[in-house]
Amino acid sequence: xxxxxxxxxGDGIEASLDRLFPMEACRQSAIFSACRYSLLDGGKRLRxxxxxxxxxxxxxxxxDALPFACxxxxxxxxxxxxxxxxxxxxDDYRRGRLSNHKVYGEALATLAGDALLxxxxxxxxxxxxxxxxxxxxxxxxxxxxSGVYGMIxxxxxxxxxxxxxxxxxxxxxxxxxxTGALLRAACVGGCLLAGADETAVARAEQYxxxxxxxxxxxxxxxxxxxxxxxxxxxxxxxxxxxxxTFVSLYGKEACEKxxxxxxxxxxxxxxxxTDGQALIELACWLAGRDH
Length: 291
Ligand code: GRG
What we know:
This protein is about 70% helix and about 0% strand. By secondary structure, it is mainly alpha-helical. Strands 1-2 form a two-stranded antiparallel ribbon.
């Protein structure tokens, strides 16, 4: 069972990703194959669905947001490919299949991540359905959230914490960047693309912040209580790598309570949008997700 929002936008996102990153018969066809292996690989499509929904809630036609939604999913995919590399988390499996470098080798997997990142901004900036200032504002925000002030910054903090016990504050900041920034890019990016006012942007930020933290706490819990087959990757890997997680910081029961409180905060923020019901349902679904 999936959340209504993911079902509603899922097919459109899949078709657009396939169209925006087609297979090409050329001397470098291997890179197209490597990119498509991970891009069209059954992710939940959470970030693109959120971007499209916030765009709709702020008055836009969600179809017009597809290049930004897909660009953001390309960035997310690149981060997963690079995160699985031996020089990072060294994971052999992702979404129930061999990770990119196990199939294509480390060099091509590195290039596939780089190629997805470049193509992401190409598809966002070549769109024509949205006025260009809004398109630039959204693309710029996504770039900021993906880079040194966002996801990459969080990954660097994570590397620096390796082998150490993080304080709660260090852990929260690292996660707000590593996991939270791309979810913020989705929610706030959708609002900026629609030219929404500051109040809507602030509500979207509140929703993203609460959902992002709850999402990571659930992720940490799933590594302990989840089913490897449903998750599509090994469980117990955080403990094996002696990683500091919310489970190691708070314990399982307190994690459940924190997820509940954060979900209530997300529901409250979503309640400020007329017709924000699907956002509410998504936050509740994510709180109990099994993959
Ligand atoms: C290497 C540049 C670089 C960044 C790495 C995103 C990231 C930073 C690492 C991925 C590993 C990880 C635990 C990230 C936390 C966020 C998270 C749980 C990502 C998985 O997102 P889902 O569940 O994935 O939306 P699907 O498979 O559904 O697309």
